[in-house]
Amino acid sequence: MTRPITAALDGSEESLAALDWAGREAVRRGLPLRVVHAWRYADQLATVDRGTQQGWASDGVREAVRAVAERHPQLAPAVDVVEGDPVHALVRAAAEAEMLVLGSRGHGPVVGFLLGSVGRQVIAEAARPVVLVRAGDRAAAEVAGRDVVVGQQGDGEDSAAALRFAFETAAARGATVRAVRAWTLPPVFAYSPGSLKLLDDAGGLEPYEKQALSEALGPWRERFPDVPVAEQVEMGSAGQVLLAVAGRAQLMVVGRRAHRTAVGARIGSVAHGVLHHAACPVAVVPHE
Question: Please, what are the domains in the chain?
């Protein structure tokens, strides 16, 4: 089954930017575009019945979709106007999509995304990648010379989903993948005879980290031989190292593991930090 690229639309400027981004990406990847709008019946509008309110929602969505279809005549967007809780509707839509694209209000010229409660919950619970696009995002940012930056952590399996998404996106755009791995000095008690031998065989901590990144990238280099790859290993926290290269990125890709707490699911610290400080679109990819 061919999965669509799904954009969540609520009529805001940021959701219109997300729809534009999703339309361009659907054309590049040769995938269908789906647009989902979740609405709730406002019973306080006693003089307006449910059918009329649904009509208002549908009219606004179809007008925005018509504009995207005019810009991309090869697309025939599917539109779903769903009554109900937005989080449930969007998580369900994400499960059926190649990716879900959300708009997010930026809060400063060089500061990233201001996430509402719906966005936070959807990112934490979605089974598929979620892309956050700021209001004001333009196609001009997707230019040659800007990389698809992806954070790599752990071994190849740990980051496989994020690397796959980054390579697929770069292949569709003719872009370079910049794979970034951050490392820090472990506490002394973390060393064991086995880990010390691995470090000794690699020639030290930094060579070991470079080797780990190279090994994680190996399968994806073979699968996407035409995609240029830049490898970058830096000492520091993962969030800081990724944000240091965000200025040269047309898209930032980070993995995430959802952490369940008493108040619901939460995304990891790296994804949280990048989302709040990166100016480019950010894709949050759940680990497989």
Answer: 1-141 (3.40.50.620), 144-288 (3.40.50.12370)
